[in-house]
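To the team - threonylcarbamoyladenylate complex, inputs and output below.
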Amino acid sequence: MSIDQKYIEAIKAGDIVAFPTETVYGLGADAWNPDAIQKVFTIKGRPSDNPLIVHVSHPKQVYEFAKTVPDKALKLIEAFWPGPFTIIFKKKPEVLDAVTAGLDTVAIRMPDHPLTVDFISQTGPLVAPSANKSGKPSPTKAGHVIEDFGNSVLVIDGGATNIGLESTVFDLTDIQPAILRPGSISRKQVEDVLHEKVAESFFHHLKTPRSPGQKYSHYKPKAEVQWLSGTPDPLNKEVLYLLLTPEISGPNVINYNGKLDHLAKELYDRFRQADHDGFSYIAIEPFDGLNDHPVVPALLNRIEKALS
Ligand code: TXA
Ligand code: MG
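Output:
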């Protein structure tokens, strides 16, 4: 499938186009067009001090934005791009303040989605926050984007996204390299590439988080999100159960049979579903026994932010 030219023309005309990635849908605008970028902040309702990720179609485009590209970054690009891994670089002076919210760094990633890589190779680099209105969960389907924005943006429909949680954000501009946002690429995978320890800097209690996005409150569904305690009651119509233990089933039970990546892929969709269907509670089965899975820190981070 090739990209309809209308999407490319829209970007070139300074409009916004939502596109799929392997993580969540992004709200794309030309990374060199300040008016287009301003539109993204306006329609999303995003605070102006929260910087955007630049999405590229080829690693060489990093040199358009980054003042220096350290050897460590090259190793990480080699290992994880295209993929759900965002790297923070020192920025070139010409990178727009609207992109970086005035910081001296810029976040860049190459998404792993053939349609989108083709798209960006024809438009040039695009900034793209997750394509949800601020205060809603990130969209994992084209329908979610339309739910939030109606017909006010064009959406390239690439079906449901594979991973379902936003990319890992990794900062190596500081003396201490750190993961600023956990994603499906884990700390251990990063350490295995760099052969050194990396820090994690995404706890809520940090007074001055290194990633501005961390200080904004996250989406909470209208239903109360809770960790399941005790035995589920599949007949309780008030509760949507998200379970991992294979045996239990019922009308309000979604059973992931121990597959955490499947839970991650569907989590935001289930949050939206619970709101539509008027559930009072979402009970998620704890996954203490599955802690070796690389997606655990990202999944815990998103669930903990949604807990009531
Ligand atoms: O998977 C993803 O990363 C998705 C898809 C669309 O690519 N995008 C996404 O964008 O999640 P957004 O804007 O919702 O989240 C970007 C995060 C925010 O927490 C922001 O603060 C952080 O990245 N960020 C961006 N630039 C930064 C910088 N220069 N320094 C530190 N954090 C930065
Ligand atoms: Mg977001």
